[in-house]
């Protein structure tokens, strides 16, 4: 009987610490109805049983060591694999993310998940400057704070401009981070590559998020990370031999496929302009035909002619 009471008493101590109650020798002695010295013996017994009980002088109470909880995760093999994959993939987002994942893992009580040897993930290091931008922009988005950016334009030129933006959301795609924000210089929503931001400052100014932006911005016409541009219908035809590769995935939400009698595949898309689409189209040459629109056909013909002329010049050099 005495052993049963002692066990229940120690469980009561553990549960109170786990809940974050203000647990002291005197409060436990009064609650349990024993002398303070008896409580100290109980706590010492629990410590010997490897419960990480510590006395936090700043808070004046007993606590568990960092990351410890009585509630431990009971993960099966599939769940452990998913956790390991998530950890390996998310660590590429920066050292801070990796540290936080380790802390979460300790709290789950999994003892450390290890990615199996038969699964190999490619490496993608996040530049330190981008990791810093992520932290600041995340806080700005949550607080609806305006941000001032020193931004260098994309591949067309490297001109630097100062932009004040209303940040809406962060986008990770093709191993790169992007910010989607309303640009007060251009008076419209724009996409900003985080590695092209030289510096940023979160301003002490707030904005009201427009519902129409939140609801309508993430539409089906975005090819890769290109969200801007006029919605345009595109019809493509792919040769029979590449059809199986096209059908392996859906490349854009608006995609509709139609199998032709001669074995070719006709693909209908609606895209926001051609900037994000054209690099993808060039990867299918010579097994692709642009049916519509004529403007896209002409642009690609000009690009191919310019490329052929360069090749001709290089062959003579």
Spatial separation of the terminal alpha carbons: 97 Å
**Record field, number of beta strands:** 11
According to CATH, what is the class of the largest domain? Mainly Beta
The overall number of domains is 4
Low-confidence stretches: none
Per CATH, which architecture of the largest domain? Roll
CATH topology name of the largest domain, in short, is: SH3 type barrels
Could you estimate the helical fraction of the residues in percent? 25-40%
What radius of gyration results from the CA coordinates? 30 Å
Protein described:
The chain is an alpha+beta fold and 317 residues long. 38% of the residues lie in helices and 25% in strands. Helix 2 packs across helix 3 (36-48). The mean pLDDT is 80.
Topology:
Elements: H1 2-19, H2 25-32, H3 36-48, E1 53-56, E2 61-64, H4 77-90, H5 95-108, H6 128-143, E3 145-152, E4 160-173, E5 176-183, E6 188-193, E7 197-206, H7 211-216, E8 231-238, H8 243-246, E9 256-259, E10 265-272, H9 277-282, E11 288-292, H10 294-316
Antiparallel strand pairs: 1-2, 3-4, 3-7, 4-5, 5-6, 8-10, 8-11, 9-10
List the defining traits of the structure above.
317 residues, alpha+beta, Arc Repressor Mutant, subunit A, SH3 type barrels, 4 domains, five-stranded antiparallel beta sheet, four-stranded antiparallel beta sheet, 10 helices, 11 strands, 38% helix, elongated
């Amino acid at each position: 009987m005495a052993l049963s009471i002692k066990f229940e008493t120690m469980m009561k101590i553990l549960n109170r610490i786990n809940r974050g109650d203000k647990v002291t020798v005197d409060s436990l002695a009064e609650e349990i109805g024993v002398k303070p010295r008896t409580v100290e013996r109980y706590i010492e017994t629990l410590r010997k049983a490897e419960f990480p009980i510590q006395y936090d002088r700043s808070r004046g109470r007993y606590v568990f060591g960092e990351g410890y909880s009585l509630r431990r995760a009971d993960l099966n093999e599939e769940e452990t694999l998913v956790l390991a994959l998530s950890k390996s993939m998310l660590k590429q987002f920066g050292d801070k993310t990796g540290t936080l994942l380790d802390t979460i893992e300790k709290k789950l009580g999994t003892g450390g998940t290890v990615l199996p040897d038969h699964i190999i993930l490619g490496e993608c290091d996040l530049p330190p400057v981008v990791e810093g931008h992520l932290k600041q922009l995340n806080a700005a988005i949550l607080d609806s704070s305006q941000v001032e950016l020193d931004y260098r334009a994309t591949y067309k030129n490297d001109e630097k401009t100062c932009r004040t933006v209303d940040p809406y959301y962060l986008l990770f795609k093709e191993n790169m981070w992007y910010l989607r924000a309303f640009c007060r210089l251009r008076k419209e929503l724009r996409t900003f590559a985080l590695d092209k931001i030289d510096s940023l400052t979160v301003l002490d100014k707030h904005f009201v998020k427009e519902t129409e932006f939140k609801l309508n911005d993430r539409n089906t016409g975005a090819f890769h990370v290109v969200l801007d541009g006029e919605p345009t219908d595109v019809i493509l035809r792919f040769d029979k031999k590449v059809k199986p590769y096209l059908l392996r995935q859906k490349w854009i939400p608006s995609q509709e496929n139609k199998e032709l009698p001669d074995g070719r595949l006709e693909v209908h898309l609606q895209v926001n302009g051609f900037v994000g689409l054209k690099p993808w189209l060039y990867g299918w040459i010579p097994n692709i035909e642009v049916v519509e629109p004529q403007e896209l056909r002409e642009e690609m013909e000009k690009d191919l002619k310019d490329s052929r002329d360069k090749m001709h010049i290089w062959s003579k050099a």
